[in-house]
Structure formats: structure tokens, C-alpha cells
């Protein structure tokens, strides 16, 4: 085995991911990979993030060293690669980008017709680099199906035999997406022990997520509730999750309190803490309401997220129509999101139909998201599937009460106000009727100013930082390496 390229006794953890905030972010995966390694580094570990190179503002704004150049074959296609390391360690951990012309040189992480080849090249390129460079980490931590082939290749390809004793951790952020590919793609993989082909297969296709679960030393999910749900709702992998449950653990995500902190957030109109939360939120609400033509004297309900079925975004138009059909309801709504074109079109129509009541921004803007969390009184998440959910954690950090469907991580992190020490509003079914009833409960709560103020302060004191979750990952790394 090659000698470890580590200069001290700190455990060396390499995270592999398609996303990492603020380099490239599409959803919660990017937030997690942008935060967890920083907390690991602060705890004394040596944490790296390795991801594809994207033509993004962050990459253009920072300096990188080329630390490796090489080439390999993907099938019969020769690929040239280079590895770039961010010079200043600005993210608080080592950031490495793999650049491959034609595959890992794109504007965005997803949405390409050759996505299978794209992420296959990422994984092959990573293994080729660290093997050639003699880098032997203590743990390789793979995130979602985009890195799902890594453990299989480490353990069953002679080309990467130097890595066969390195333990691997797999984290399932969203089990609905699995990276399926036809078996005719197998020729593009590095040579592997063909007797082990069954580890790649699920239902007669190469399934990278299934391979990840089968081959990783351990796998985690981003909440305990989501781990249980995967046993019965995993888009065809239910049996596999049950078979492998002995090596599983649910660890709820945290939030980066250096980024999400209303007391220090430079994106807000006015900063505030728990002691002056009401005044601070009113100032931010006034600015947002003025910008989008809303009435700042009314309670503000927000939705932030993708317009996707799993998020329950298709329920939003019916929810809004039902609420505004009741002329006695005093409420403003602000929506930030994009995705399903039908939902986008309908939401744009509703914003025109209800001027002064509904504000909408199609797309995603980080600064606006922060300002909405600070301004809103309530955040709604009618999710059908929510492995962990970060939006509800951000909202509570800013004193905004979450209204959530009780599923996955939402069930783990939001307790209804009817419970002792409860601090949110939950509902059971992913339906407009249940969501509307929950909103009426929220409006009733809003009229109780004293109770509302007490809950806001209670929310802001809950510790959802990465500290506790990072400790659980550190214990996991120590367990599998010892």
C-alpha cells in the first residue's frame, strides 16, 4: 500500500460531491458539503472537498494552483484531466476541482444528456489522481449517486488496489435520484472484477446509488426519520435499504451559523438577535414588502424552494387560491423558487391576479432568500419527500415559524405547538386542504402577540448548528477506521 500523504496524526477525510456552496449549489447537498468539512476541520480533522470544475463566479473570483495533470481512457475515449486547488483555503477546508474538457467544464452541475458520462469521468478522474499521486486518505466520504461508483471501484478494480483498505462513508441526501444507466455503459468503467458485477446491478440496470449502499463501509441518511422512510419509500430500493440497515445511521443535518445568523448576516436590511427579534423582523419585512408591493402590516407567509413534486410545490397554487378566496384573511405571501414550468406559469398568473397580496421571484437569489427568512412570520413546506430539510432550520434561526408536513427530517426537527415546548405547526397529509388548515392555525397564533413573541425567541435559541452533527460524523469516522 502507498504511504499516506498526511503530515500529522489528524484523520484525513475526503468528501466527494457534485455540489458545494458557495462554489456550486442547486439544493441542500451543496449547503451540507459546504459546511460539514469546515466543522470537521475546526474539530482537528483534515477535511478536503473534491468536486467537478464548473464555470461559476466563485471559480473566476479565486486563485487556484494546478496540482496534477494526467490522462485516462473512458472506454475508448481519451480524457485529459487536471486537478486545481484553491490557494487561500477561503472555505475553511481544502477545495479541489477536477477539470476535464468536454465533461467537467460546464456551467451547471446537472441537466445534460450525457450526465452518466459526466459523473463517471469525475469519479474515474478522482481515483486516477489520488492513486497516481499516492494519496491514501483515512476515509472517503461519498455524497449521493454522483459518487456512487467510488466504493465499488476502490474495492473491486485492480487499478485502484492501493485504496482497497480505505473505509468509505456514503450519505444519501435524496434517494429518489439514483443515476440509473444501461448496462451498455459498463464498457466506460475502469476495468473491474467482473465476478462482482451484481454489486452494480439493480433491476437489470447499473444503479450507482444501489452500488453505493451495497459497497460503502457504512451509509448515513440526513435524518433519522428519512432513514426509516427509505425502508418503505425509496423509488425501488426499499428492499436494499432493509437488507443493509445494519450498517446505517441517521444523522440530521446542521446549518452553518457563520452564514445563517441574523445577528451578523450582511445580506439583511437590519440585523437582530432574540432580544429584539420583533423590531428586526419588522424592519426587514417593511423593506421586502415595499420591494414587492405587499402590505407590511399583515402577517407574511413565505415559500422558498424548487417547484418540484417532492417539495409539494404543485400544491401552492391551490393553497394560495383557497386562502385568498376568504376575504376575511389578512395575509401576504412571498414565493422564491423555480422548476416545474406549469407551477411557474400558474404562480406568475396568481401574482398578477392578486397584486398587493402575492409577491414572486422566479429563480433563486441567495441574498433574497436571506431577506425573506428575516422578514417572514411563517415558512411553509408542504413536502411529499424531505430527507432532512434545511429551510425549516434556516427559518427558525431567523425567528420564523415553520409550517411543515410531518415527514422525514421535518418530522425530526419541527414539533407542533400543541406539544410541550413545541415551536412549529405541522400537518399530516400532502394536500392543499391540510396545508390551508395549518395556515389558519398560524394566523390564529399570530393574533396572540405575546405567544408569538415568545415562540420567536424560543426558535432562535434552538441549536441547529453543525457542531452536534459533526461530532456524530467524527465518531463514525473513528469507529470505521479503528
Automatic annotation (TrEMBL):
It catalyses: [(1->4)-alpha-D-glucosyl](n) + ADP-alpha-D-glucose = [(1->4)-alpha-D-glucosyl](n+1) + ADP + H(+). It holds the Pfam family Glyco_transf_5. One of its GO terms (biological process) is glycogen biosynthetic process. It is an enzyme of class 2 (transferase). Residues 12-241 form the Starch synthase catalytic domain. ADP-alpha-D-glucose binds at residue 25. Residues 293-453 form the Glycosyl transferase family domain. Pathway: Glycan biosynthesis; glycogen biosynthesis. GO terms for molecular function: alpha-1,4-glucan glucosyltransferase (ADP-glucose donor) activity; alpha-1,4-glucan glucosyltransferase (UDP-glucose donor) activity. HAMAP family: Glycogen_synth (MF_00484). Synthesizes alpha-1,4-glucan chains using ADP-glucose. This is Glycogen synthase. It comes from Parapedobacter pyrenivorans. The lineage of its organism: Bacteria, Pseudomonadati, Bacteroidota, Sphingobacteriia, Sphingobacteriales.
